[in-house]
Amino acid sequence: VYLAHDPELELDVAIKLLKAELAAEPDTVERFRREASTAARLRHPHVVTVLTVGRLEGPFDGAPPGTPFLVMDYLPASLAGRLAEGTPMAEPDLLRVGEEIA
């Protein structure tokens, strides 16, 4: 997943790119396409919005042309980031996150 800036939308976005070694596997490409299609139809405050999908026109960071990608909202604050800080979450925050995940 890469952080990028979309100059047309004037916002930061996250770009999820299928790994280069998996881009040649039709089953994996189809699963990635289904994930993108399903995610694009979801509308929920706790599910990131998919803005667009596509395939690379040229090589990028070791991925060959034709590699599938999807562009999503970029969320600068994440649960993974908070957990990586190593400080325990306060009980009310932990309960809120647990409820949101459930």
Brief summary of the model shown:
With 102 residues, the protein is α+β, with helices and mostly antiparallel strands. It is 32% helix and 24% strand. The chain is elongated.
Describe the structure using short key phrases:
102 residues; 24% strand; elongated; alpha+beta; single chain
Write a structural description.
The protein is of the alpha+beta class and 102 residues long. The chain is built from three helices and four strands, in the order E-E-H-E-E-H-H. It is elongated, with a radius of gyration of 16 Å. The protein starts with a strand and ends with a helix. 10% of the residues are buried.
Shape: elongated
Tell me the strand percentage band: 15-25%
Number of beta strands: 4
User: What is the count of helical runs?
Assistant: 3
- H-E string: EEHEEHH
Strand arrangement, major sheet: 1-2-4-3
Let me know the average pLDDT: 87
Structural class: alpha+beta
Question: What summary fits the major beta sheet?
Answer: 4 strands, antiparallel
Compute the gyration radius: what is it?
16 Å
Helix content: 25-40%
